Amino acid sequence: MESVAEQVPMYIGGLAVPAHDGAVLRTFEPATRRHLADVPSGGPEDVRRAVAAAREAFDEGPWPRMPARERARLLRAAAERLAGEAAEFARLEVRDNGATLRKARGADVPGAAAAFEWSAWWAEHVPEREAGGGGSYVLWRPAGVVAAIVPWNLPLLLAAWRIAPAIAAGNTCVIKPASFASLSVLRLVRLLHECGLPPGVVNVVTGPGAVAGESLVRAPGVDLVAFTGSDETGEAVRQGAASAGTSTRLDLGGKSPNLVLADADLAQAVTGVTWGAFLHNGQVCMAGTRAVVHAAVHDEFVRLLVERVGRLRLGDPLDEATDLGPLVSRSQARTARRFTELGLSQGAQLACGGGSPAAGELPEGLDPAAYFRPTVLTSVGERDTVAQEEIFGPVLSVIRAADDEEAVRIANGTRYRLSAGVWSTDPARARAVAERLRADRVWVNDYRLVDLELPDRDGRGASAVWDRLTNELDSYRRRHTVHGGGGEEEGRPAGPPTPYALLGG
What we know:
Blueprint: E1 10-12, E2 15-17, E3 24-28, E4 35-40, H1 44-59, H2 68-84, H3 86-97, H4 101-125, E5 129-131, E6 137-142, E7 145-149, H5 155-168, E8 172-176, H6 183-194, E9 202-204, H7 209-217, E10 224-228, H8 231-243, E11 247-251, E12 257-260, H9 266-278, E13 290-294, H10 298-309, H11 330-345, E14 349-352, E15 375-378, H12 385-388, E16 395-401, H13 404-411, E17 419-423, H14 427-434, E18 441-444, H15 463-474, E19 477-482
Parallel strand pairs: 7-8, 7-10, 8-9, 10-11, 12-13, 12-17, 13-16, 15-16, 17-18
Antiparallel strand pairs: 1-2, 3-4, 5-6, 6-19, 14-15
């Protein structure tokens, strides 16, 4: 087995430290169940120390007060280091998380580097002061101490998309990664300190969510809690933060649809739907795990889909030829099986997949119980459990629709509003359907789970990534408005006089 440090420290106040009480958590490779490393099992005292370090760095340290271009310099250095150490980070992510090497090297690490590059660009270009009328103006200031809880499915990428914009805006952070998929996050924070990040700006505490996570959500001194994960845990985070009077920024689950219209290019649609449903075994919040297909093309679409999915290769995630590695754990594979069996009991038909590989189907040394074949269920009712609940596994539900009207109704028929895709050769028809979908983002003839564009150093750059990142960045700033104090001498009309006479006296 490749060498990984026996015990990987967490970082508090710029120092590599163990848990306060010395407790550790053992982490295992999902593909093999071999012991990979030990990480600190942090608790309330570790959280208290981390928040205190972040608080001091924000209230008294140089980071929030330095020019944005100086923060950008460090962010860009981190992006360059990530790109230069891509192979190391990719292999670490594969062994800790179960991602395939192809995905980790082609998406996770470049995406993390892009987050720092974009955040550097934003820090250099977006003004921190905006002028208004009558001498009024708006100052955009950092929110303060950000507590960020990131999940196990994309630990490096999602940690980068939390840390980079937060510190670009001048905040300080405490990061809590998933207890059994934290090695790449710990390595990332170490890299930031090696790039010269001041002590206390980014701190990381590892440990169980019910202990370290709960303490962090309710910790005095935290100004904003940013959480990515399931709806159920997100609600607990929201309540815990509310009890402490802390704001939240929550990114929760999804059950996203791909609408295949009667005039769709089926080969193109099958490729996109397969990608959207099965990338990283469907362990992505924006995964397109519902295919809503027009009745006129339903049977042919399913035939082509089953053929395409059948070519996906399960195997060693460190093998470049592998399409799908293990799920993050045996329990997640059991969840996929449980939902599949529930779907069949409610009337769905199994088109392909439906279980773990048999003994001997995988290369020697791999754990079949952590794998689950990519599964396609047909004859799924729009209200069936598999069509309504997030599975977070490689299970795709195909739902037949009589026409565009019914397809839109079915697509909008869940509580989730994250993303969607529309497949049609008629641009006007596709846009008409897309505009009726209740989703934050809709792709036409595409399903873009990965954005890797980098900013143009001389211009705005790729608008889709810019819009997404600007929304992310704005979550970590607060608006500070100063009214008056200027006027005609600044070339702007003064505001209306305050009607003091209404009070009398």
